[in-house]
Write a structure and sequence with these properties.
single chain, alpha+beta, Helix Hairpins, Glucose Permease (Domain IIA), 2 domains, 14 strands, about 20% strand
Length: about 400
């Protein structure tokens, strides 16, 4: 943004958006509760338990923000309704005053004698007709005035009822907001208790971090090696095809020492994979991201950072890992500390699914999107977590922007 340029105001969310967010938050809380209960089955506190509590805190903040937005809408509606009520009251008072004046004027000619005198005092026949028409119009005007008063009175009563309903909604939401704020406070206290318990296990946590980082390096090296082999294999095949056709280069392929040489079919698959960025289904049916891509400070150990080449998705026990797109299984391996791992190739893209208890596919097998690759393992602490990665050739990508937003 250029210096001095004003930031455009954030557009308020619609009522429909708020309702969708409310339902999403409720589902996320249910998921987090199920996962948290699973981790609580073990007596000792765990990082998985801490992650589940953090997820609940994040969602709880969203719930409170959602309620605040709903309150803003109700406040706005109440102000508009109050303005309408005031306007209707003014109109009603004016109509009643006009009607009173009409009734008073009519009272002067209330009996038949006065009406007859008014008519026969006409100076001419035309004047007589005009006076007769005036009396009739005056009578119709009074009827219309009564109808208007009735209509405005009904509208006013309806608006007052609407305003009363809005006030009740506001009162209910304020109580709900207070309850959710108390829930958030309880969650923060629970989080602090778990952190305190984990802090007493510093030596064990430090060893666990070292084991995890070693396992990640082994997985990283294995994937990198497999990608290099695929790059070399595809380049060799391209050269052989070029030699067989008698040309110096393969007209139907793209070759590079750092990239997979793509056949037209593989290039189409890569393009399709890339074009679906942000629309891929999650590799597990339910769960939340317990650790994001990149370098992160350890949640308990001070001064300790951990590296994540993908994302960790914490889920329920027994959940199945699913391929996010069509491709070929190029690796099935067991990595100590990371369980079983499956790599699926999609042209120049590779997806990796690790921390699997069991695997249901074999190397060389073609799989479709959402095909089951295996079952996610549950560790000794009761945490069920999938490690998911996306590579493009030899480059590690952040998988989060590629998946559908929850």
């Amino acid at each position: 943004m250029a210096a001095g340029q004003k930031r455009s105001p954030k557009k308020p969310k619609s009522k429909a958006q708020l309702e969708r967010e409310r339902k999403v938050n409720l589902n996320r809380i249910k998921e987090a509760n199920r996962i948290l209960e699973q981790t609580k089955q073990k007596k000792e506190a765990s990082i998985g338990q801490l992650n589940a509590i953090k997820e609940k805190i994040t969602v709880q903040k969203g719930v409170i923000t959602n309620i605040s937005s709903e309150l803003n809408y109700i406040e706005s509606d109440m102000q508009k309704t109050e303005t309408t009520v005031t306007s209707l009251k003014t109109d009603l008072d004016k109509l009643k005053a006009e009607y009173a004046a009409m009734v008073y004027a009519t009272a002067k000619t209330a009996n038949s004698y006065n009406k007859m005198m008014f008519l026969f005092a006409s100076e001419s026949f035309n004047n007589f007709i005009m006076r007769l028409r005036y009396l009739r119009q005056y009578s119709e005007a009074r009827k219309k005035q009564v109808a208007q008063i009735t209509h405005v009175s009904t509208s006013l009563e309806q608006k007052i009822n609407v305003l009363s309903s809005k006030k009740q909604q506001k009162e209910s939401l304020l109580h709900k907001q207070l309850d959710e704020s108390k829930n958030l406070l309880n969650l923060r206290n629970e989080q602090n208790n778990v952190i305190t318990q984990l802090s007493r296990q510093e030596q064990n946590l430090q060893q666990e971090v070292e084991r995890r980082q070693q396992a990640i390096r082994k997985l990283d090296n294995l994937i990198a090696e497999m990608v290099r082999e695929e790059i070399a294999r595809s380049a060799r095949i391209a050269r052989e095809k070029a030699a067989a056709s008698g040309s110096g280069t393969a007209a139907t392929t793209r070759s590079s020492v750092n990239k997979v040489t793509l056949t037209p079919e593989a290039a189409l698959l890569s393009s399709s994979f890339s074009g679906n960025k942000g629309r891929f289904s999650w590799p597990v049916e339910r769960g939340f991201i317990s650790q994001r891509f990149g370098v992160h400070a350890h949640p308990v150990l001070k001064g300790v950072q951990t590296q994540n080449n993908g994302i960790d998705i914490q889920t329920n026990s027994g959940q199945q890992a699913r391929a996010i797109f069509n491709g070929k299984v190029t690796l099935v391996a067991n990595i100590p500390g990371q369980g079983n791992a499956v790599m699926v190739q999609h042209g120049e893209y590779f997806t990796v699914y690790a921390k699997l208890r069991s695997v249901t596919v074999a190397e060389g097998e073609q799989v479709a999107a959402r095909a089951v690759l295996g079952t996610v393992q549950t560790n000794a602490e009761g945490t069920t977590e999938l490690q998911f990665q996306i590579w493009r050739n030899q480059n590690k990508l952040n998988p989060e922007p590629w998946l559908l937003r929850k």
